[in-house]
Design brief:
831 residues; alpha+beta; eight-stranded mixed beta sheet
């Protein structure tokens, strides 16, 4: 009976969570249409990608490759930057000696100085000859045929890879180049090798080979400048999108360089009647006092046109505030980071969270990036379903680098965007901050509130080997996660052959980011086992292996809360492992959407929950967190306001808090330590309760067990009521969960209230709905027993965070009293 009740409660919770997760922002704009300008509730049928393409400044041809800005003021954004161009099917078929290989064209927009002759050339781009990398590329290579869902999504205004329809053996490079209707995906290349001419490109032209997947980026040039104000227009007044900027002078270390004019174009309205970005507020926002990084290129007239913006202040290593201690850090994550006072449009904050003494970030430090964005409110608000602002979740990497303009240390951020098909043309893949956040056409910085949580934990990484996907002895969670994320991102671009990837409760940004992490943890565990088997002295030091093992066990508890990995995740992990060893013949990835698999990964179903649970886990592991929070920067568009991402029913705070506490208490991991702690509380409580009860005469000295089966049947009823009901009411619902970081004073105050209400509840019950117990429930000796039981359950709950230890103590106490100690006789009606 109890098992059935618990299962029913768990499945009901999963169903509610599933309904909320269905309303993801990736598909929120699909549906009704209206003529003229669209609205959030009635968007135009065209995609935002198609609407923004109409503006000349959003077209690649607007920026001639032959023009370059003043090299004293502008620097290349990266060594290798280019525009991907999808080969025709004929070119693929006629490529000499490369049947079935994954390659695409790239038009080079930036090259290192020694390769200056390659600038502007169209070269063939392929992969290095690296067996592990080749095997993984083959694993995600698939035939693509758009299915009915893909065609329907395209009709509703989503961008799907229509140019790839009907193609065979589409690999990750081609799925990236063909993700949009036009060849406009700009990428940065790493680990580049220039190969001899292959007879495919122009006569004598070489080809390029890369050892890592391309990184989507924006702007071939970058400058650091302060935005002074609108530039004067010809004939008086001011030009609407021209701005005077003063450049940073590296020699003087100040914004005292030349004053020039740049263009910061106003993006056209999208299908929802909103601007994806707006220059309004650029001049007045305090974040600009430290300058802006301006990414872009000169147009045909030589005017530098900004394509992406990045505020310098946000990426400096300093923090505005420090939350020191585990409880203070947990409280900030739960209540402070997204509190109403922290949601002022145009504002930003930098907060350091450290359970112990914070350690400064230094050059070369790498950390895990956990990204979360919220919703859009105001007059142009997006629809919100089920009182839940779902938001979006992603992993990524942060690295401390030296800024080429100022020489200061700052954070560089990249995201592993597992992103479903959408109207904006945002393509799943690794993206530089300039492409995902700062891009004026597709970036979310000006439209949504952001949280970028940078996790500093030394055990994440060790010195990286240069070859992506290689290094069988390397113990790097960051490298493993990057590899698995690349697999998932490539699968999202191809839709596993369907051309479309929607979202739901079991398949989403947060669920599949968690899948990548779960598989990375599993592969890391295998390498840990291999390192351990080599014996001491032959592998990494024992202390680091032990700390990594503790980390993997904690991540397992979060990602597989019932101790069982989802079948589709387990299958996909096997496919990746087989592929890395060249044994993937006939292997295929799997996607599951049933309620059972959703329940197995319920803790990472909603982006906000996944974000907060991971942050709490890493804090408990001793990590230091640096939180970057922005709210629709620069904040001049008064038609929108930032909305915090929420848990399920988060816009009904009491209900959301109750659901979160119930879920955390029901599914908190229970290990042998919890069992030992429960026994350590249960035994002293039982001895004390028996001693006081017999001394006062409240408990019978004679023990009668009676037939076991009738007692067992009755005890199952007592498990439900009073044990389960009262524990849910007086412990779970009333007390802050230990993960909320209430602190000692708050814990004592809430605990005293809980204990007092638990004791008072019994006489009240005797006077109202349970008159048979009136005499017993008013007996001071019973109230002493009640106090002891409540105190034992209170301590067990606060120490474990799980409902099961106090439930067990409560149930055993009631069963022993009502059964062998004959307490049931006291509850009979008076004659």
């Amino acid at each position: 009976m109890v098992k059935s009740f618990t299962a029913l409660l768990a499945w009901s919770l999963a169903l509610v969570l599933a309904l909320a997760a269905l309303f993801s922002p990736a598909l929120a704009t699909m549906g009704a249409t209206s003529p003229g300008i669209g609205t959030p509730s009635a968007p135009l049928p065209l995609s935002n990608d198609a609407l923004s393409e109409r503006a000349p400044f959003n077209q690649s041809a607007h920026y001639p490759l032959g023009l370059r800005p003043d090299p004293a003021l502008y620097k290349p954004h990266a060594d290798w930057i280019g525009r991907l161009i999808l080969p025709s099917e004929r070119e693929l078929a006629e490529a000499p000696g490369t049947p079935g290989q994954d390659w695409t064209w790239i038009e080079l927009e930036q090259v290192p100085a020694p390769q200056a002759s390659l600038l502007g050339q169209r070269l063939r781009l392929g992969w290095k000859d690296n067996p592990p990398l080749t095997n993984l590329v083959r694993a995600v290579t698939t035939d693509i045929r758009l299915d009915a869902a893909a065609r329907s999504a395209s009709t509703d205004g989503n961008v799907v890879p229509v140019r790839l329809n009907g193609r065979r053996r589409v690999g990750p490079l081609q799925s990236l180049a063909g993700a949009r209707p036009r060849d406009d995906v700009i990428v940065e290349l790493q680990e580049v090798a220039v190969a001899p001419a292959d007879g495919l490109a122009a006569a004598g032209a070489p080809s390029l080979r890369i050892g890592r997947p391309p990184i989507q980026t924006t702007g071939r040039w970058v400058a650091l400048a302060q935005i002074l104000g609108p530039a004067p227009a010809v004939g008086g007044g001011s030009a609407s999108d021209r701005y005077r900027v003063q450049h940073y002078d590296s020699e003087r270390g100040a914004f005292s360089g030349p004053i020039t004019t740049v263009r910061v174009p106003q993006q056209p309205l999208n299908r929802n009647g909103r601007w994806m970005s707006s220059p309004l507020g650029l001049v007045s926002n305090p974040i600009g006092e430290q300058g802006w990084y301006l990414y872009g290129a000169p147009d045909a007239t030589g005017l530098f046109t900004v394509q992406a913006l990045r505020p310098r202040a946000l990426f400096q290593l300093m923090a505005d505030q420090l939350q020191h201690g585990r409880d203070a850090s947990l409280r900030y994550l739960q209540r402070g980071s997204w509190a109403p006072t922290s949601l002022q449009r145009g504002s930003f904050s930098r907060v350091e969270l450290a359970a112990k003494t914070p350690v400064p970030w230094v050059l070369g430090d790498r950390g895990l990036l956990i990204h979360l964005f919220g919703g859009i409110g105001g007059r142009q608000a997006e629809p919100i379903a089920f009182f839940t602002v779902t938001g979006h979740f992603a992993f990524g990497e942060a690295e401390v680098v030296r800024d080429p303009f100022t020489g200061e240390l700052q954070f560089a951020l990249r995201y592993h965007q597992i992103y479903a098909n959408n109207p904006d043309g945002i393509v799943a893949g690794t993206q530089d901050w300039s492409a995902y956040a700062g891009d004026l056409r597709r970036g979310w910085l000006g439209t949504r509130p952001f949280s970028d949580l940078l996790v500093k934990l030394d055990r994440f990484d060790e010195p990286a080997r240069s070859d992506f996907g290689a290094g069988e002895s390397q113990l790097s969670l960051l490298r493993e996660l990057q590899l698995q994320a690349e697999v998932l991102m490539a699968r999202y671009r191809s839709g596993d052959g369907t051309g479309f990837n929607g979202v739901g409760a079991a398949i989403s940004c947060v669920q599949d980011s968690s899948q990548a992490l779960a598989i990375a943890v599993e592969r890391l565990r295998l390498r840990l086992a291999s390192a351990t088997s080599q014996g001491p002295g032959s592998g990494p030091d024992a202390e680091r292996i032990q700390s990594l093992e503790r980390l993997t066990r904690s991540l397992d508890g979060l990602l597989t809360p019932f101790g069982q990995m989802r079948a589709d995740w387990r299958r996909n992990a096997a496919v990746v492992e087989q592929s890395s060893q060249g044994m993937d013949e006939g292997a295929a990835f799997r996607r599951s959407t049933g309620l059972r698999v959703t329940l197995l990964s319920w803790r990472t179903m909603v982006p906000r929950s996944g974000h907060d649970n991971l942050a709490q886990l890493f804090l408990n592991q001793g990590a230091q967190l640096h939180v970057l929070r922005t709210n629709q920067i620069p904040g001049g568009d008064g038609r929108i306001t930032p909305l915090a991402p929420t848990d399920l029913l988060g816009q009904l705070p009491p209900v959301a808090s109750l659901l979160r506490r119930i879920a955390s208490a029901l599914f908190m991991a229970v290990g042998w330590r919890t069992v030992a702690m429960t026994l350590a509380i249960l035994v002293p409580y039982a001895l004390l309760a028996l001693a006081l009860g017999r001394r006062s005469g409240f408990l019978h000295a004679q023990v009668r067990w009676g037939p076991p089966l009738p007692l067992l049947r009755r005890s199952l009823g007592w498990l439900l009521m009073p044990a389960l009901v009262e524990e849910l009411l007086f412990r779970v619902a009333l007390l802050p969960h230990p993960l909320e970081g209430e602190g000692l004073a708050g814990t004592l105050a809430w605990g005293s209230l809980s204990l007092g209400l638990f004791v008072i509840y019994h006489p009240l019950a005797g006077r109202t709905w349970y008159p048979n117990a009136k005499r017993v429930f008013h007996d001071p000796r019973f109230l002493v027993q009640c106090t002891l039981l409540g105190l034992a359950c209170l301590v067990a709950y606060n120490l474990s965070g799980s409902i099961w230890p106090p439930l067990l103590i409560h149930w055993l106490a009631v069963t022993v009293w009502l059964g062998p100690l004959q307490g049931h006789r006291r509850l009979r009606p008076a004659r």
